[in-house]
Every structure is written in structure tokens, then in C-alpha cells.
Amino acid sequence: MPIDMDAQTEQANHAFSEALSNELFPAASTSSSSTSHSYLSSPVRSPVRHSASSSSLNSLSGGTTIVSTSSPHQHQVHHTASSPHRPPQTPSRKRILTFDSPSSRSRQGQVFGNEGVPLNASRGLESPRHEVYNTSPIRESTQDVLLSSRRSIRPVAKTPFKVLDAPDLMDDFYLNLVDWSSTNVLAVGLASCVYLWSANTSKVIKLCDLQGDNVSGVAWERNGATLAVGTHQGKIHIYDTEAVRVVRTYENHSSRVGALAWSFSSSLPLNAGFQSTGNTTATLTSGSRDRTIVHRDLRAPEECYRRLTGHRQEICGLKWNAEGTHLASGGNDNKLLVWDASWTGGGGRGGGRRSRTTSTTSAASTTTAPTMMESGSNIDDCQPLWKFHDHQAAVKAIAWSPHATGLLASGGGTQDKTIRTWNVANGVLVNWLDTGSQVCNLTWSKTTNEIVSTHGYSSTKAQHQVCIWRYPSMDTTATLAGHTCRVLYLAMSPDGETIVTGAGDETLRFWHAFPKAKSTEKKEGIVDYLGREDLIR
Q: Are the C-beta atoms of 510 and 483 separated by less than 8 Å?
């Protein structure tokens, strides 16, 4: 991970390094560059026709070989570095009143380098770019490097435009306490309370106080009016934020619920006879410390759910893709699992179990596959579509690309420090990057093909940073610093221009990270650009 490096600094350092190498090692830089001209690297500043001043040639040529030609059929070769001083020699044939053009002189007087390649063969003296006319203290090839066109780099503000104080924001890697709704409202879990901050008005309201229980996760439903709140006691409360009341409470977990995700696909199966309860059509998925994943449809009775078991330790990351066809889950067992929404009895597409590390496929199950919401079902034999074992630490950071179908990004904890991208269509690792620091969160930009990552512990690199990476090159666009503790929480505004980060230093910081979406009008609910520090409660 770069310490204080962004794309502009990286590009400037590369140009300086290339220019310095060209000045110090001209021969090496010339031979390695396909665009540079070999004659520019010669220490001889002009071609020589006659050897009348052999002593001066020794000082100019610096060990090169000079060929002096007095006629088209007669050549004299002088090794100036090894030959002693020679007196002037009379040419064997004189040309009187014969015109000699600069181009012919350049062909007659050749200066050869160590490999026998003519250094001034590319151009003659008639070229205004010849080294003999260069009045700059640096070589012309170095000037070409410094004056060459640069890739356009998007500027990113390095300081947050707004900072909110968030007392009691827990410094716990396994929790997910910040989420941003489609109606531009930020939900934050602080100890036993949940607060809502409106980005339009900067007003703060207290949604709930659990009294005796602490918040472990929050997640907005797509409509922006329904909020799911997970607790340390294993409960999940569904709130109507407009009416500020609890709609439903689930108690399907035996331990804290730190990961919550909504699926917005209308194709998910539903048991016959269950009617919709209002305009909410999403399925809520929760991951717990009890190592299970539970699915619920808010249209179904409270006792209806589907349980999946595949992780051996706490589940700390859950994400549905935009189409609602695949669910990615990450756990403290260092595993990343991808589940198919078809939920066939044998697991995986076509009833087969797939694993990237073993690449084995079991026979399809002949048992009847249960529906998505079967009353009280506990399907332990439902296997994931893919199991990825490449990470060496807990996988909390998970994000699906909005730009490419089936592209999944994941990040590992302190002992792993890598960001990896996967193609879930074939289970192939597409790309990976060692960031040098604990990866706490990931999200894709909505307006550009870039990834945001937040970081924590690091033994060798700068800590507590927010990084923006260009995909697929994974070059650094910007590095944002300001937090003094692990940056554990990350959310993006509905317009995709702003991100908010939260850390154990009990602050929420808002950053202008991305440009406006192209060919789209400015959305309502743009973040209030106040520069002052406010209190979240």
C-alpha cells in the first residue's frame, strides 16, 4: 500500500526515474527504449570527416570508433581510445570545388557505439533536433521523456469535506454499523442505539435504544424506508423508519448478527399462500457468530426461513449481487463462499458442488429441492456453488462489480492483506493485489471502474487509510488519510459521488471520491456540503 502516494505522484516519480536513468545510463536507456533515437545518446556531439585533430577526437569520442572516409571506396579506421596521438595526414585524393551536402557528410562520417551500431545514422545535421544544436543541459531524449503526453488523472480531494462525531462507535472488525439509504439517510449503530442522519437536512433522529443489548449490524432495504438491525443477542429487528417503529423481530440466531444483506430479485421463490405485507418485496439474509446464514422473506410468516451452513467460524461479510442470483459470504474461517439463489438440494448449479481449490464436482442429487422459504427448514446439505480458500485471514470485505456481471471482489484481514477478484461464472481468480495492510471494507464505484478499500493494521505500511484503485490495473488513484484507528466502516451515497468512512476513533468522515455519473441528471438528495464538525447524536 502506498504511504502517501496517489496516481499523480506515482506518474511523476516514474517520469523522473526514466529521465534520470536516461541521463546517467544513456546507452542502456537507448537500447531498452523503442521510441528513443540512438544517436542522441552518443557523447560525440558532431560527425567527424577527417582525422586532422586526433587528440581532440580522443577527448570527444570517449572510446567510440570513428570511421573517416575520404572517398566512396576508401576507408580509414581509427581507434581513438587505444591509439596514440597521430600527426595530421594528407588525404589520398582531394576534391576541389565539389559540393558536399550535410546529408552526405552525415553518411560519410559515422560514429559507432560499443555494439558497432552507427549512433548518428538516424538523422543528419539537417535535422533541427540533432544533438549538435541542443542548447539544453539535458539530452534531447530526456526532454522527450519530460515533455511526452501524460495520462489524464482524475483529481481527488485528500481531506474530508465533513466530519461527524460518533461517540461509542465500536472498534470491532466483525461488525457492520454504517449504511447509507437510497433516500440519502445514513444509519449508524452506536452502542445500544441506532441514529439516522439526513444528508439533505443534517438532522439527526434517534431510531431506537435496545436497552440491555448492543447493535452489531445495520442494513437498509432498497426502498430506503425499512432498516434491519442486528444485535449481539442474535435478534434482528425490522424498523419502519418513517413511522419510527418496529415492524417485526426475528430470533433465529443464537449469537450476535454482524452481517446483513438484502436481495432485490423478484424471481426468488415464495411458498404458496403467503401474501405480501405492504410494498416490501426483498429477502433479508443474515450471518451470525453461530456460523449459520439465514434467509427470510418479509412477505412470509415469521417462522418461515431457510438456513445454510458452510462456514466453520463467524460470518462477517454478506453481499447479494445486483441481479439477486448469487450470494457471497465471508467468514472468520478465511473462506469465501458463493451461493446460487436456486438453492438446489445438491447445491450449486445443476445440483453439483464446486470448489476452486479441488475443482471437483459431485453427482447431482436426486432429492426434491426445497423451496426458498420452507417453514422451519434447516438445510445442512445445501452446498455453495464455489468455495474459495485463497485468503489467509478473515474475509469481511466483499463487493460485487456493477460494471461486469459475475465479478466479485474480496479482501482479507491482517494475515492476508490482499484484494482478490473472482469470476463466479467459472470460479477463476481474475486478479489479486497485496495491499500491505488489513482490508476492512470494499465497495465498487457506481460512476467509474474503480474500487474503494479501507484498511487497518499493518506492520510495515501506513495504517488506517482509504485507497481508491483503478480496475483492472489496480493502480492507485488516491490515498486518503485522516483516521487514527482502523477504518472499519464504509458506505456510499446513492448518487455514487461520496463515501463515508467510520473508525474506532469515533468519527465519520465524508469524502468526495468519484465524479458525477455520465449522461445522467443530478439526483435529488445531494449531500449537504457543510465543512463544520457536527455531532451524530
A: no
Q: Is 164 exposed, middle or buried (0-12, 13-18, 19+ CB in 10 A)?
A: buried
CA 165 – CA 502 distance, rounded (Å): 10
On the question of pLDDT at 350 being above 90, the answer is no
The yes-or-no verdict on residue 376 having pLDDT over 60 is no
| 442: nearest Cα among 516, 484, 391 | 391
With 80 as the cut, is the pLDDT of residue 131 above it?
A: no
Q: Which helix (H) or strand (E) holds 56?
A: helix 54-61
- pLDDT tens track for 148-157: 777 677 889 9
pLDDT higher than 60, residue 361: no
Beta bridge partners of residue 228, listed in sequence order = 219, 238
Q: Are 385 and 340 in contact (CB under 8 A)?
A: yes
Q: What is the pLDDT of residue 57?
A: 33
Please give the single-letter amino acid code of residue 272: A
Residue 274's alpha-carbon distances to 264, 266, 304, 374, in angstroms, are 18, 15, 10, 11
Higher pLDDT pick, 174 / 517: 174
Cα gap 314→413, rounded to integer Å: 14
The answer for residues whose C-beta is within 8 angstroms of residue 65's C-beta and 6 or more apart is 77, 78, 79, 80, 111, 112, 116
Omega within 30 of 0 (cis) for the link into 494: no
| Phi, psi of 480, deg, nearest 5 | -110, 130
Q: Are 453 and 416 in contact (CB under 8 A)?
A: no
Amino acid at 441: N
Q: What is the pLDDT of residue 276?
A: 39
Of the candidates 210, 242, 187, 304, the one whose C-alpha atom is nearest the C-alpha of residue 195 is 187
Q: How many CB atoms are located within 10 Å of the residue 180 CB?
A: 22
Report whether 350 contacts 340 (CB < 8 A): no
For position 7, what pLDDT does the model report? Answer: 67
| pLDDT at residue 98 tops 60 | no
Distance from C-alpha of 303 to C-alpha of 294, rounded to nearest angstrom: 12
Give the number of residues written for the chain: 537
What single string gives the DSSP state of each residue in 87-130?
A: -----SS---S----HHHHHHHSEEE-TTS-BTT-S--TTSTTS
How far, in Å, CA of 537 to CA of 530, rounded? 17
Q: Are the beta carbons of 261 and 240 closer than 8 angstroms?
A: no
Q: Kindly state the percentage of the chain with pLDDT values over 90.
A: 50
The burial of 101, by beta-carbon neighbours within 10 Å (0-12 exposed, 13-18 middle, 19 or more buried), is given as exposed
Q: Which of 501, 496, 443, 498 is nearest to 469 (CA)?
A: 443
Q: Is 60 helix (H, G, I), strand (E, B) or coil?
A: helix
User: Using CA atoms, how far apart are residues 101 and 321, in angstroms rounded to an integer?
Assistant: 72
Report residue 300 CA to chain centroid gap. Answer: 39
Residue 143, pLDDT above cutoff 60 = yes
